[in-house]
Amino acid sequence: MLGASDKAFLDQYIETALWSSNDESDDQGGEPLDRNYTRDDLAPETLDAMKADCLAFVDLADELLDLEYSQAGHDFWLTRNGHGAGFWDGDWPEHGDKLTEISKGFGEANLYIGDDGLIYQFQG
User: Fold this and answer.
1) CA-wise closest residue to 52 among 114, 2, 96, 124
2) Strand partners of residue 112
């Protein structure tokens, strides 16, 4: 069972993943997933993988998070996937570099819509 801080981290991680990922429904990349999908559309194995990554990250970085679990969930998704913001952009002046290093150790995670209409994740 997730504790309150783990839940806040995971919830924001999922929210960020959905708004920053597109459905690839057209040549321009399609719509952001959060326009047409919610966390209820995550395939069970996708949710399990997200939970595992988030719990592992918090386990490695907990003492660096300054109790900012929701913001950290947001920045973990962005940082691990090379978006233009994240732990390194100045909001974490004391620990941003170390949090970035930990995030990058997880590799990129990408979302896509399966033929069954559920959201899947692949590491790549």
Assistant:
1) 2
2) 120
